[in-house]
Amino acid sequence: MIPFNRFASTITLALTLSVGAQAQSTNLEKDVESYFLQTLNTQLTTEVADRKAFTNAPTCVTHLQQSIKNKDIPHYQEMVWKAWQAANRALKEQKLIPAEPLQNANQASWDLPQDLESNAKMPYYYGTKGTSDKPLPLFLYLHGSGPKAQEWQNGILLAKSFNDSPSSYFIPQIPNEGEYYRWWQLAKQFAWEKLIRQSLAEGAVDANRLYVFGISEGGYGSQRLASFYADYWAAAGPMAGGEPLKNAPVENCANIGFSFLTGADDTGFYRNILTHYTQVAFDSAQLSRPLSADQQPIFRHRVQLLPGMQHHIDYSLTTPWMRQFVRNPYPKTVLWEDFEMDGRHRSGFYNLQVLKRPSALRTYYDMSIQGNVIALSIQDVRYTTTEKEPQWGIEMKFNRSYSAAQGGKLRIYLNDKLVNLNKEVTVIINGKKAFQGVVKANLKDMINSCVEYYDPYRVYPTAVEVSY
User: Fold this and answer.
1) Going by C-beta distance under 8 Å and a sequence separation of 6 or more, which residues neighbour residue 4?
2) Which class would CATH give 100-330?
């Protein structure tokens, strides 16, 4: 039998250690939250106040460091995400309005950064259809280029009619007409990233069921956004559009659903021809890469020219098709042409983060993970125009040539869905071994990846940095 005094002392010591550990954990979470809030404030006050700063935002690197045992990874991921949510709640910015039933047509507006676009106020509808006890899918709808007030009103009428409940909708109005009537320009990029960040941090939206689609000008915009932000979308659905593929590389849409419907007789701005070129490109990509490294279909697409139809088509076909797709946030095959949109590049894509671009050219990344071997082909991309129409000067078709990229630096984030964290990891770039070793879970990579992606599924516990 343990003497009472000794037993009491043991209990007191255990309670003291437990309370101490809990206090330490609380203090750490507050430190992480403080760092997140400081980082968000810096981004708002400096990067968005200057066009150049927004286009070339620096990589955020935290000073907070702590080693983590593999068994404790879920606990720390949860702590980091809670700190991120708290920092976003505390950030003084225009927030999304509460998502009430879409039939109420609740609306608000965001003021977009003046230096990105003058006098840009973006009105929006935000609401839900149906009910669910789970986070809802989110549809981003982009309207066409008619008078913006009427186009915006048509958007909510269409959204109410589509068979995609339960769901939530964000329906923006273009801020300015004329030369700024483009959904892919810098000020709008600011809006999309704010929408994704706020909606995911708020928690009512399913992070693996984000969808983008649009009609006419919204078709052009959603095709570009599909390629630029593909690592966030479960699926994309441009309609009655048709971008030259230099503006929307199909490879980036690996791992997502992609629907593209245009009238077969929609000849305006060569929409039917450019849609056909997109169809051929997706079909060719599927034939050349039918399965990913983990034996999943890479390209899942429906690109069709609808017989007998011109610019007006049946818009109800797209969202029911898209909503069957759920994002895989951890594909083991990633294809990414790092292209500029309105002069700006993404700094990260899926689990890749660019620390230094190898050249002023576009870069094409082809990553495949087999077991614990990460093989990357990284190439410079050069475009040559092979078809240009005479009336508008639209570059219609291109050839691409590739050469091995040199002089870049890349961070590859990892978790137990991508590799076995208990075993050695090997990274091979362009046929040469760039890293081999056991990676260790740590707080720094969790924080850095959270700032980079603001995605609850991409709070990565470790990373490898490689130069090539």
Assistant:
1) none
2) alpha beta
